[in-house]
Amino acid sequence: MAVTLILLIQKSESLGLCFVLNLAVADSFIGISITGIATLELSQPNSTSEHCCALTMSFITSPSAASILTMVLVAMDRYVAIKQPLRYLQVMTAPVVASFLVGLWIVSCFFGFLPVMIEDFQHNDYGGKCTFFNVFQPSYMLTVFSLGFLPGLLVFVYFYCDILKIARSHAHQIWDIEQVGPAPSCTNLHNSHDLKAIRTVAILIGCFVLFWSPFFVASIVQLACKSCVLYEVIEKYLWLLGLGNSLLNPLIYAYWQKEVRQQLYHMCLAVRRRALSLLHVDSHPPMPRVTASHLNNISHPQGEG
């Protein structure tokens, strides 16, 4: 997916795709971090130090926060494109996109490594088994929920509601124009962009809420209810459900974005042609080399004695 987006950015010079590329990079970092902690647990079960476990969990939390914040930036990019279509290229310049991405990773690392910097967010009775709530306090999740998840969700909802409002206004304008005569093609095209933006933001919001809400809600319930024992359910199921959103994000853009689908199709065709050409060459062994002496013997055969 990252290679596809890089080729699209080079081809179309659309800086908005840099946010989608950053989403693919953050999701890849999550997969690498999960693989690292799985390898660590398999090689040294119940013997990971508290500091090493805290760092490992921070390396998982940071790209997870980056993935969530990047989805907000993708929604913001679609919002600006539909809100200010004529000024979009003036607003989303290379320095603006770069500053957004740099600031995003700074904030994500801050959230991810907050328990490492503030020891009150870490458990005092770490038992050696490296799990999320075995090394971090539930109060840390309340902080992340209050400062990260909830504001991100509210921004999502604001973008979606405003895009719906703009699309409804455009629909009324098109209806008024159609009463006078056939609607211009540019108006229909603009309405199509509105519908695509609504669909993209709606899918992002739906997946974001569906995958991450159970984890944060259960974490807050565990913090409020001291007698409840939800750690196993949260860590084995709900946390993995939230991380599964990172696996779903590339599939969403591969399916719903026409440009991404076309680029993937062309890449697959190129790989297929390359593989067929190699198989074709291997299936035909090289012809024996004919030298000048061979030609001479064929042209002037020796007589029998």
Structure description:
This protein has 305 residues and is mainly alpha-helical. 81% of the residues lie in helices and 0% in strands. It is built from 12 helices and no strands. The protein is globular.
Which terms would index this structure?
12 helices, disordered C terminus, globular, 305 residues, mainly alpha
Strand content: under 5%
Query: What summary fits the major beta sheet?
Result: none
Mean pLDDT: 76
Number of helices: 12
Low-pLDDT sequence parts: 301-305
Cα distance, first to last residue? 75 Å
Basic shape: globular
The count of strands amounts to: 0
Helix content: over 70%
Decide which structural class fits the backbone.
mainly alpha
Order of helices and strands: HHHHHHHHHHHH
Using only CA atoms, what is the Rg? Answer: 28 Å
InterPro entries: GPCR_Rhodpsn, GPCR_Rhodpsn_7TM
Family: Belongs to the G-protein coupled receptor 1 family.
Membrane topology: Multi-pass membrane protein
Keywords: Cell membrane, G-protein coupled receptor, Membrane, Receptor, Transducer, Transmembrane, Transmembrane helix
